[in-house]
TrEMBL record:
The keyword Transferase applies. InterPro entries: Prot-tyrosine_phosphatase-like, Protein-Tyr_Phosphatase, PTP_cat, Tyr_Pase_AS, Tyr_Pase_cat, Tyr_Pase_dom. This is Protein tyrosine phosphatase, putative. One of its GO terms (biological process) is neuron development. Residues 1-175 form the Tyrosine-protein phosphatase domain. The lineage of its organism: Eukaryota, Metazoa, Ecdysozoa, Arthropoda, Chelicerata.
Protein backbone atom coordinates (compact mmCIF):
# COMPACT_ATOMS: atom_id res chain seq x y z
CA UNK A 1 0.00 0.00 0.00
CA UNK A 2 2.80 2.44 0.87
CA UNK A 3 4.43 1.92 -2.49
CA UNK A 4 1.23 1.58 -4.52
CA UNK A 5 -0.22 4.89 -3.31
CA UNK A 6 3.11 6.74 -3.08
CA UNK A 7 2.64 7.37 0.66
CA UNK A 8 5.17 9.92 1.90
CA UNK A 9 4.02 10.38 5.51
CA UNK A 10 2.91 7.71 7.99
CA UNK A 11 1.44 8.78 11.34
CA UNK A 12 1.45 5.99 13.91
CA UNK A 13 -0.64 6.50 17.06
CA UNK A 14 -0.17 3.18 18.86
CA UNK A 15 2.63 1.37 20.63
CA UNK A 16 3.54 -1.99 19.14
CA UNK A 17 2.72 -3.57 22.51
CA UNK A 18 0.34 -2.12 25.11
CA UNK A 19 -0.42 -3.91 28.38
CA UNK A 20 1.36 -7.08 27.22
CA UNK A 21 -0.91 -7.19 24.17
CA UNK A 22 0.41 -6.81 20.64
CA UNK A 23 -1.24 -3.87 18.91
CA UNK A 24 0.90 -3.45 15.81
CA UNK A 25 3.81 -5.12 14.06
CA UNK A 26 7.07 -3.17 13.90
CA UNK A 27 7.11 -2.63 10.16
CA UNK A 28 10.26 -0.49 9.93
CA UNK A 29 13.91 -1.36 10.71
CA UNK A 30 16.04 0.16 13.46
CA UNK A 31 18.12 3.24 12.73
CA UNK A 32 20.87 2.56 10.22
CA UNK A 33 19.38 -0.83 9.33
CA UNK A 34 17.70 -2.18 6.22
CA UNK A 35 15.01 -4.84 5.92
CA UNK A 36 12.93 -6.49 3.21
CA UNK A 37 9.18 -6.82 3.76
CA UNK A 38 7.77 -8.97 0.99
CA UNK A 39 8.66 -7.17 -2.23
CA UNK A 40 9.52 -3.86 -0.56
CA UNK A 41 12.92 -2.87 0.77
CA UNK A 42 13.01 -0.35 3.65
CA UNK A 43 16.07 1.54 4.88
CA UNK A 44 16.02 3.56 8.13
CA UNK A 45 18.14 6.64 7.45
CA UNK A 46 17.64 8.35 10.81
CA UNK A 47 15.43 8.39 13.93
CA UNK A 48 15.04 11.39 16.21
CA UNK A 49 13.08 11.53 19.46
CA UNK A 50 11.07 14.72 19.92
CA UNK A 51 8.80 15.79 22.81
CA UNK A 52 5.96 13.32 22.24
CA UNK A 53 6.95 11.47 19.10
CA UNK A 54 9.76 9.77 17.22
CA UNK A 55 10.50 11.00 13.70
CA UNK A 56 12.05 8.40 11.40
CA UNK A 57 13.23 9.12 7.88
CA UNK A 58 13.08 6.05 5.65
CA UNK A 59 13.88 5.15 2.09
CA UNK A 60 11.60 2.62 0.39
CA UNK A 61 12.08 0.69 -2.84
CA UNK A 62 9.99 -1.93 -4.59
CA UNK A 63 11.47 -4.93 -6.39
CA UNK A 64 10.02 -3.69 -9.67
CA UNK A 65 11.70 -0.27 -9.45
CA UNK A 66 15.25 1.05 -9.31
CA UNK A 67 14.22 4.27 -7.55
CA UNK A 68 14.13 4.89 -3.80
CA UNK A 69 11.32 6.97 -2.33
CA UNK A 70 11.42 8.99 0.89
CA UNK A 71 8.88 8.09 3.58
CA UNK A 72 8.58 9.98 6.86
CA UNK A 73 7.35 7.91 9.83
CA UNK A 74 5.90 9.93 12.73
CA UNK A 75 5.36 7.78 15.82
CA UNK A 76 3.29 9.50 18.54
CA UNK A 77 4.11 7.81 21.85
CA UNK A 78 1.69 9.37 24.34
CA UNK A 79 -1.73 7.89 23.57
CA UNK A 80 -3.13 4.77 25.23
CA UNK A 81 -5.80 2.65 23.55
CA UNK A 82 -9.42 3.79 24.13
CA UNK A 83 -8.11 6.90 25.92
CA UNK A 84 -6.76 10.34 25.11
CA UNK A 85 -3.44 12.17 25.37
CA UNK A 86 -2.65 13.88 28.66
CA UNK A 87 -3.98 17.33 27.73
CA UNK A 88 -5.76 18.91 24.74
CA UNK A 89 -2.62 20.96 24.07
CA UNK A 90 -0.58 17.76 23.65
CA UNK A 91 -2.56 16.57 20.63
CA UNK A 92 -3.08 20.08 19.25
CA UNK A 93 0.68 20.60 19.18
CA UNK A 94 1.27 17.22 17.54
CA UNK A 95 -1.39 17.72 14.86
CA UNK A 96 0.01 21.16 14.07
CA UNK A 97 3.50 19.69 13.83
CA UNK A 98 2.21 17.08 11.38
CA UNK A 99 0.38 19.74 9.39
CA UNK A 100 3.69 21.56 9.05
CA UNK A 101 5.14 18.39 7.53
CA UNK A 102 2.17 18.00 5.15
CA UNK A 103 2.30 21.53 3.82
CA UNK A 104 -0.77 23.04 2.14
CA UNK A 105 -3.15 20.38 0.82
CA UNK A 106 -5.04 20.93 -2.40
CA UNK A 107 -6.33 17.41 -2.95
CA UNK A 108 -3.73 16.38 -5.54
CA UNK A 109 -1.03 15.22 -3.12
CA UNK A 110 -0.39 11.57 -2.20
CA UNK A 111 -2.59 10.42 0.70
CA UNK A 112 -1.33 10.56 4.29
CA UNK A 113 -1.52 7.27 6.16
CA UNK A 114 -2.78 7.49 9.75
CA UNK A 115 -3.12 4.36 11.88
CA UNK A 116 -3.45 3.10 15.45
CA UNK A 117 -4.34 -0.49 16.39
CA UNK A 118 -7.94 -0.86 15.19
CA UNK A 119 -7.83 2.24 12.99
CA UNK A 120 -10.90 3.96 14.46
CA UNK A 121 -10.44 5.47 17.93
CA UNK A 122 -7.14 7.28 18.01
CA UNK A 123 -7.03 7.46 14.22
CA UNK A 124 -10.52 8.96 14.01
CA UNK A 125 -9.78 11.49 16.74
CA UNK A 126 -6.56 12.60 15.04
CA UNK A 127 -8.24 12.98 11.65
CA UNK A 128 -11.20 14.83 13.18
CA UNK A 129 -8.93 17.31 14.98
CA UNK A 130 -6.87 17.80 11.83
CA UNK A 131 -10.09 18.68 9.97
CA UNK A 132 -11.21 20.98 12.79
CA UNK A 133 -7.95 22.90 12.85
CA UNK A 134 -8.08 23.38 9.09
CA UNK A 135 -11.67 24.60 9.24
CA UNK A 136 -10.95 27.03 12.08
CA UNK A 137 -8.35 28.73 9.91
CA UNK A 138 -10.99 29.82 7.40
CA UNK A 139 -14.33 29.96 9.24
CA UNK A 140 -15.77 31.06 12.56
CA UNK A 141 -17.99 28.09 13.36
CA UNK A 142 -17.55 24.35 13.27
CA UNK A 143 -19.94 21.40 13.55
CA UNK A 144 -18.05 18.65 15.36
CA UNK A 145 -21.08 16.35 15.57
CA UNK A 146 -21.61 16.22 11.81
CA UNK A 147 -17.88 16.05 11.15
CA UNK A 148 -17.62 12.89 13.25
CA UNK A 149 -20.83 11.56 11.72
CA UNK A 150 -19.29 12.01 8.27
CA UNK A 151 -16.17 10.13 9.32
CA UNK A 152 -18.32 7.30 10.67
CA UNK A 153 -20.15 7.09 7.36
CA UNK A 154 -16.76 6.36 5.79
CA UNK A 155 -15.53 4.02 8.53
CA UNK A 156 -17.53 2.63 11.42
CA UNK A 157 -16.65 3.71 14.99
CA UNK A 158 -14.37 6.60 14.04
CA UNK A 159 -13.78 8.56 17.28
CA UNK A 160 -14.53 5.38 19.15
CA UNK A 161 -15.99 6.41 22.50
CA UNK A 162 -17.41 9.24 24.57
CA UNK A 163 -14.06 10.02 26.18
CA UNK A 164 -12.47 10.66 22.78
CA UNK A 165 -15.51 12.58 21.53
CA UNK A 166 -15.51 14.92 24.55
CA UNK A 167 -11.72 15.28 24.25
CA UNK A 168 -12.20 16.47 20.67
CA UNK A 169 -14.51 19.23 21.94
CA UNK A 170 -11.93 20.11 24.58
CA UNK A 171 -9.23 20.41 21.93
CA UNK A 172 -11.34 22.70 19.75
CA UNK A 173 -12.34 24.69 22.83
CA UNK A 174 -8.65 25.16 23.69
CA UNK A 175 -7.87 26.35 20.15
CA UNK A 176 -10.75 28.83 20.21
CA UNK A 177 -9.72 30.14 23.62
CA UNK A 178 -6.20 30.60 22.31
CA UNK A 179 -7.47 32.50 19.28
CA UNK A 180 -9.85 34.55 21.42
CA UNK A 181 -7.07 36.17 23.43
CA UNK A 182 -7.14 39.85 22.68
CA UNK A 183 -10.38 39.62 20.68
CA UNK A 184 -13.35 41.77 21.61
CA UNK A 185 -16.48 40.23 23.14
CA UNK A 186 -18.64 41.09 20.13
CA UNK A 187 -16.70 38.89 17.72
CA UNK A 188 -18.33 35.60 16.57
CA UNK A 189 -15.62 33.48 18.16
CA UNK A 190 -17.11 34.09 21.62
CA UNK A 191 -20.46 32.70 20.54
CA UNK A 192 -18.68 29.55 19.34
CA UNK A 193 -16.85 29.27 22.63
CA UNK A 194 -20.13 29.40 24.56
CA UNK A 195 -21.60 26.68 22.34
CA UNK A 196 -18.56 24.46 22.85
CA UNK A 197 -18.70 24.95 26.61
CA UNK A 198 -22.30 23.75 26.48
CA UNK A 199 -21.30 20.53 24.70
CA UNK A 200 -22.29 17.25 26.40
CA UNK A 201 -19.77 15.81 28.84
Amino acid sequence: MIWEHDIQIIIMLTQCVEGNKKKCEKYWPDEGKEHVYGTVQVRNESSQRRDDFILTECLVKSDDSSKWRSVRHVFFTGWRDHGTPETPETLIKFVRTCQGMFGPRRGTEPPILVHCSAGVGRTGTFIALDCCLQKLETQDDIDIFHLVLGLRECRRSMVQNEVQYVYLYECVNAVIQEAAKGASNDEPIYQNLEELNAAPN
